[in-house]
Amino acid sequence: MDFKSSEQPAGPRREDVLPDTATAAVKVVIVGGFGVGKTTLVGSVSEIRPLTTEETMTQAGVGIDDTVGVERKTATTVAMDFGRISINEELVLYLFGTPGQERFWFLWRGLFEGALGAVVLVDTRRLEVSFDVLGRLEERGVPFVVAVNSFPDAPDYPLDELRGALDLPASVPILVCDARRRDSSRDVLMALMRYLHSLAVTPEAS
Ligand SMILES: Nc1nc2c(ncn2[C@@H]2O[C@H](COP(=O)(O)OP(=O)(O)O)[C@@H](O)[C@H]2O)c(=O)[nH]1
Ligand SMILES: [Mg+2]
What we know:
It is globular, with a radius of gyration of 18 Å. The protein has helices at 38-45, 108-112, 128-140, 159-165, 182-201, and strands spanning 24-32, 51-56, 75-86, 91-97, 115-122, 144-149, 174-177. It contains five helices and seven strands, in the order βαβββαβαβαβα. The protein has a seven-stranded mixed β-sheet with strand order 2-3-4-1-5-6-7. Helix 1 (38-45) crosses helix 5 (182-201). By secondary structure, the protein is α/β, with parallel strands linked by helices. It has a single domain (21-205), classed as Rossmann fold (3-Layer(aba) Sandwich), CATH 3.40.50. The longest helix is centred in the C-terminal third of the chain and has 20 residues, at 182-201. It is 26% helix and 25% strand. The chain starts with 23 loop residues before the first strand and ends in a 5-residue tail after the last helix. Residues 32, 34-40, 70, 72-73, 77, 149-152, 178-180 line the site of guanosine-5'-diphosphate.
């Protein structure tokens, strides 16, 4: 009989437990319009099973949630996604994905409490769904990076053109990602960390 079975011992799974060296916890918010890949990004990068609150789209969303370009999407996040990623032995990021639809904006105040920065996910087929989100972040003075989630049939604009279309200042990082890939999602978070660091070093850069 093989006693080295794959059975897990009782108690928390190893990946659920943070190392004792973890000393800094940073809250990061993932925002963006409907169907841009927020839940996907949190799910691909989180080292704990992400918590997500999806609800089958109901009549409340009909005619309001723009499903053009996301025809296969039948669930929409009503409250938030939650995940965690350790950047190194000391730094842990807590990720909060939050809906971009206007009817959920009442959630924003609480979710942005204590957040150090944000990732704005963008779908180039529907840039306009990001305008309000970007405007609200600027209003609140929350530093953010923009991540273009590349969907196969999405137009492939040069990044400086996108920067112009989204009216982003030159200092705001903009990068392309594939939210389904862990390494790509991680790169986005690292870009945000680098940006936050640069702001802390030279605050006038913001
Ligand atoms: N091709 C492609 N599809 C994606 C990508 N990210 C998300 N999706 C799909 O797009 C749909 C919407 O993603 P979801 O994460 O639910 O969007 P959310 O509303 O922002 O949370 C889902 O069907 C995903 O599987 C991506 O990078 N590439
Ligand atoms: Mg979602």
